[in-house]
Model the fold of this input.
Amino acid sequence: MKDKDYKVSLVKSYGRVGYGIRFWHPARTAPDGKPLRVHRGLGTKDEAEANKNVEAMEDLLKRSDLWSDTGRATAENLYPKVIVEAFYDYLTQPQRDYWALREKEIALLGPSEGYIRLLLAGTTGAGKTTLERQLIGTSPSERFPSASTAKTTTCDWEVVIQDAPFKAIITFLPRDNRNRTGVQTAQPN
Done:
């Protein structure tokens, strides 16, 4: 990157009370191959503190020796936590098999265990979630899972109906594992 690309902008989004920063990440690219543009909140309303964070990020962006996971420990001693997280959260994370982790905690039972698998598919508002409410025994007053005529359920659900204590697994995907609409881009095997 050229020196002019190390510019960090202090931003205050419309309707927000705190400050944020915007910069081009020197060690990451977006899915289209262009440099990754990062916009990150600083968690402060103090403009002087926010400006110090801008200076810290500009300094970090000039230190190519710190642009890998191995440089994080050094960066943690030099820069505020919010700056370290804003930079290193976008470096490549180790690949995790979220489906295997879920399977380890709560196995999705199949025909060999005496269960059948059912996939509910249909257009928005067709009644998939309403049917699921009936299957799991929640009443309309509980409003779980949420249902409406608008697009509501935007994630995969796996429900195992059995006589056992209630258990749940929720997987939050890393920022890089989402496309612009927030939908998971990697599909399970």
Q: What stands out?
A: The radius of gyration is 22 Å. Residues 5 and 34 are 13 Å apart (CA to CA). Helices lie at 47-62, 72-78, 81-88, 98-105, 128-136.
